[in-house]
Amino acid sequence: MSDRGFRPGSFGRRALRVAILLVAVAGAIGLLRWLLAGTPATGDAEWIWAPRSKASITIPAAFYVYRDFRVEPRPARARLLIEAEEEYFAWLNGRPVGGGSFVLGEPLDVYAVGDLLLEGENRLVVELRSSNGGGGLLADLQGAGPEPAAFEDLVASDGEWRVARQWDPGLEGGWSSPGIEQVLVWGAPPIGRWGVPELGAERPVLAELGRPPGALPGRPGEVVADRGAAGLDIAWPAEVTGYLSLELDPDSSRLGLVHLEGEDLVPVVVPNGAPRWIDAVPRRWSRARLSGLDGVRAVRVEELPTRAVADLLRPAPAAPAGLFGIHPPPLRTPLMQQVRREVQEAD
Among 105, 147, 171, 210, which residue's Cβ finds the most Cβ atoms within 10 Å? Predict the structure, then answer.
């Protein structure tokens, strides 16, 4: 009888060799990406996030990370380069900078923040939101003298940043330090799937759009229907363009949905104790319905001037081609699925 049949342990050895080969290939690809990446626009900045426990994986999360730093002397020019997966909203010295949502392949958001910097102590705060508890933030605040002087790092995302899981009145302005937890550092670009960051077009800073420091007054929404099983219906006298802002009770629920007329659902995840939620993406508003948020005090839009609209409004994604006239249902992100389940359970 031939002894060429299956031998005990042979399959395990082959599987081990295949696994080792795959790890070696992945390592070689990663090394090649690093060698070809060159110097990223974000200098020494690293991708950071809040530490997670096993129990928090796949659970929607919203929290703050912040960094205190000194500027002496104040530079003639300054810019903030930033992106985060999935969403962010940033403040510098208590004044709103702006927000954004991550789209693979799109460039960094760039803000000219020189007028928001202070001589001496400064604080940069970023609110982060994720559908599954995981994600990343890459941020680099750079300063320079008068042109043509080159920009240099003033403060960048690294292991010195701190996490605040709970909102605090003095967090954004810098007069309290509510979080002592260190961030988790993923590593410098081009780590992970984020690639090498490139500069995008400069975006307007919200604090410099004619609004007073530390505030975001906007046109209030007109409530046209009381809260019921379907949620809270909101209408504006005329269409407005900007960031939706919700003022909330401290004990309000932290998850919700905004049903935007003519568009897909907008998920809402609010940090613990936060008195407000500001959409990371500007949109056009005429009618909306809020679901799942039981402590909404006021609804308004942080309206954008005409000159800023074209730069910030993201074109609606093209509808997928249908087969024989049948179109697939709209894509639902994990965050939307989770919010839908929790909203339905609460009803």
Answer: 171
Q: How confident is the model at residue 326, as a pLDDT?
A: 47
Paired tokens of 157: 């995302």
Residue with more model confidence, 109 or 265? 109
Give the pTM. Answer: 0.78
23 inside domain: no
Average pLDDT over residues 232-256: 87
Which domain, by its residues, includes 262? 219-315+327-346
The verdict on residue 188 lying in a domain is yes
Residue 327 scores a pLDDT above 50: no
Cα distance between residue 80 and residue 67, in whole Å: 13
pLDDT at 237: 83
> What letters, b where the CB count within 10 A reaches 16 and e where it falls short, cover 148-186?
eeebeebbbbbeebbbbeebbeebbbbeeebbeeebbbb
Q: Which amino acid is at 269?
A: V
Q: Tens of pLDDT along 140-194?
A: 999 999 988 899 999 999 999 999 999 999 998 888 888 789 999 999 998 888 8
- Do 265 and 185 share a structural domain? no
For residue 181, give the CATH number of its domain.
Answer: 2.60.120.260
Domain total of the chain: 2
Same domain flag for 187 and 256: no
- Residue 146 resides in a domain: yes
